[in-house]
Amino acid sequence: MSENSHPHRADVLVLGAGPAGLLAAAACHRRGLDVRVIAPEPAAPWDKQLSAWEQELPGIPSTWVRGRWPGMRVAGTTATTLAAPYLAVDVPTMQADLLESLQGSLVAGHVEGLSHSDDGVAARLRPRLGAPDVIGAAVVVDARGALPGRYWQSAVGLDVSLEAPWTRGPWLMDFRPAFSRQPRPSSAGAREGAMSPTFCYVLPFTERRVLFEETVLMGPESEAVLPQLEARLRARLAGYGVRVSEVHRVERCRIPMDSVARPVPPALRDRVVTFGAAAGFTHPATGYQLGLSWRRAEPLADAIQSTVDGRAAPLSASVWPDEALAAHALYRFGAGAVRSMDSASLVAFFDAFFGLTTEDAVGYLARTLSTNDLRRAMWALFRRAGWRTRLELQRAAVRDPLGALRGVFDNLMEQAA
Ligand SMILES: Cc1cc2nc3c(=O)[nH]c(=O)nc-3n(C[C@H](O)[C@H](O)[C@H](O)COP(=O)(O)OP(=O)(O)OC[C@H]3O[C@@H](n4cnc5c(N)ncnc54)[C@H](O)[C@@H]3O)c2cc1C
Fold first, then answer.
1. How far is the CA of 274 from the centre of ligand 1 (A)?
2. Ligand 1 mean position to 189 CA, how many Å?
3. What pTM does this model have?
4. CA 246 / ligand 1 centre spacing (Å)
5. 170 lines ligand 1 (CB under 6 A)
6. Looking at ligand 1, which residue's alpha carbon is closest to its atom 33?
C-alpha cells in the first residue's frame, strides 16, 4: 500500500456508489488498498430490480440472489424458451453487504472536477461545511453513471401481489400484441415517431409475488412515454387476466442505450479510469451493464494495485480489453439496425433472433460469446431472417459501414480462408 502523504490522500478514489462503483471499490479493498468512495449519498438505496443471465455473474454469492429460473420465455409473435438460467439479484442485500465491507471508506460529496497532482490525481468537491474540498489519490475510478444519450430504454414496472397464482412462468420479452391490447404492429411505428411496440418482462418471485414491467427497448428521450407505458402495462395485465391485490413498488426505468464513456482528459489517462455505465458498459441492445461490472471489477483492481505499487498497468485495457471493444462495435451496429426498424420489422426481427440456438441468443444478450462467435451468431441471424429484416440490416450497413465491415466483411474473409 502506498504512504498517505496527505490527510485526504487515498490509494483509490471511486466516484459514485452505484453497483459499479461499489463492486470496484470492494475489489480494491479486498487487495488491501486504501479506498474512498465519494457520492452525494453513498448509502442511498438502489431502487431497481437488477437481473442478469447466470453466466454473466459467475460466483455471485447465493445470498445476493432473489430469484433463479432455469429458462426464460420469449416471444416475437410465437413463444419459445431460452433454456439458460436467469437470476434476479437481491439488491438490498448486495448493496448492504458491499456498504458494510466498505465501512469507513464512504464520503458524502459531489465531485466537480479532477486535476493532476504531484503524486496522482486531485478530486475537487463541491464545498460543504465540515467536509474536505479536495481528496487526492493515486488512482481515480470514475463510476458516476451513464451520460445521456439519444435513444432511451424506458419501462414501468409493478411489483405486485396477485389474487391468484401466476402460472405462465418468467418472461424476458413478451411482444405478443394479443396479450397487451396495444395497437397491432404496423409499418407506421418508429419512423413516424409513434412509440414502438412494447414488451412485457415478468419475474415471478413466488406464485403470487410478481414483477411485471412494460418496456420500450429504444425509444425517444422524452419521459412522456412513461404514462403511456403504465397504461399499456395495465392493459397487458388485463389481457393476461391478472388481478392485483397489492402493489408493493412501482419501478420507472430510464436507460440511455447509446451512452458513451465519460471523457477522461489525456493528461489523466494513466491515473483515471471509467467504470460501469460511466465506461459505456451499457449493452447497446439490452441496457444491462451489471454483468460486465461484475466480471471486470477484479481485473480492474489488479491493474490499480499494479499502478499504486509503481508498476505500469494500462488501466483502461483492464476495463475494455481489445476483444471486448471489437464485440462492442458489433453490438452497436446491431442496436443501430434495431432502433431504426418499424414495428412490424422489430417483431419479425425478434422472431428470427429467438430462433437462434439458445447458446447464441443468450450469449449475445449476456455478452459471453467470443467476438468470432458473436459474428457467427449475427450471420446466422441474417441468414434465418425474412426479407424485411434483411432489408433493415442492409440499410443499417449503409448507415454504419464501419460497423458492418467489422461484422460482415471479417466473417466473409474467415469463410474464404
Ligand atoms: C430501473 C432500472 C433497472 C435496471 N435493471 C437492470 C438489470 O436488471 N440488469 C442490468 O444489468 N442493468 C440494469 N439497469 C442498468 C444499470 O445496471 C443500472 O443503471 C446501474 O445502476 C448502473 O450502475 P453504475 O454504478 O454504473 O451507475 P449508477 O447506478 O447510475 O451510479 C452512479 C453513482 O454516481 C454517483 N454520482 C453521480 N454524479 C456524481 C458526482 N458528480 N460526484 C460523485 N458521485 C456522483 C451517483 O450518486 C451514484 O451513486 C437498470 C437501470 C434502471 C434505471
1. 13
2. 30
3. 0.92
4. 28
5. no
6. 16
Compute CA distances 185 → 148, 213, 333, 342, whole Å: 29, 19, 24, 8
The reply to whether ligand 1 has any atom less than 6 angstroms from the CB of 140 is no
Instruction: Supply the angle between the helices 343-354 and 358-366 in degrees, to the nearest 10.
Output: 120
Q: Looking at the structure, do residues 122 and 247 belong to the same domain, yes or no?
A: no
pLDDT value of residue 118: 83
pLDDT in tens, 290-342: 999 999 999 999 999 999 999 988 899 999 999 999 999 999 988 888 888 88
Report, as an integer, the average pLDDT of 103-113. Answer: 95
**Total length of the chain:** 417
Whether residue 59 sits in one domain with residue 169: no
- Domain shared by 124 and 178, yes or no: no
Cell numbers at 158, concatenated: 409493478
Closest CA to 293 of 41, 46, 8: 46
Give the domain range for residue 172. Answer: 152-256
**Domain identity same for 126 and 271:** yes
Question: Is residue 72 in some structural domain?
Answer: no
Counting ligand 1 atoms within 8 A of each CB, the residue from 37, 69, 144 with the most, and so the one to mutate, is: 144
- Burial pattern 385-395, b for ≥16 Cβ within 10 A else e, equals beebbeebbee
Closest to 196 measured CA to CA, from 206, 205, 188: 188
Please, which residues have CB within 8 angstroms of residue 381's CB and are 6 or more apart in sequence? Answer: 352, 353, 356
- Centre of ligand 1 from the C-alpha of residue 123, in Å: 21
Pocket test for ligand 1, best of 255, 257, 319, 367 (most atoms within 8 A of CB): 255
The DSSP H or E segment spanning 86 is strand 86-89
Residue 341 confidence (pLDDT): 83
Q: Is the CB of 123 under 6 A from ligand 1?
A: no
* Residues 285, 295: Cα–Cα separation, whole Å: 19
* Site to substitute for ligand 1 among 13, 23, 47, 48, most atoms within 8 A of C-beta: 48
